[in-house]
Amino acid sequence: MKYEKAQNILPEDIIKLIQQYIDGGYLYIPRKSDSKKAWGENSGIKNSLKERNKEIFIRYSKGVSVEELTEQFYLTEYSIRRIIRKEKQAI
């Protein structure tokens, strides 16, 4: 999120109207609902996690133990088992 100075982008009459409600404070203006992005779309982390989870499942399918996967991916045993369960359901 980037801050913009209101006087640089809004007409003066709109600024005066907003000042009646919040004078000198910060105001968050949300995106329009049709331009919202899902979590992780901008950074690419969502796709990275999908790939990681597929890799965990592939290794598990090839016989790598849950304990080894916890060490390789720095995740808890519970997280590894949850990922494996979700990947099995996706098939």
Automatic annotation (TrEMBL):
The keyword DNA-binding applies. InterPro entries: c-mor_Regulatory_Protein (IPR052411), YraL-like (IPR049739). Coiled coil: none annotated. Keywords: DNA-binding. Transmembrane segments: none annotated. One of its GO terms (molecular function) is DNA binding. NCBIfam families: CD3324_fam. PANTHER family: MU-LIKE PROPHAGE FLUMU PROTEIN C. This is DNA-binding response regulator. The lineage of its organism: Bacteria, Bacillati, Bacillota, Clostridia, Eubacteriales.
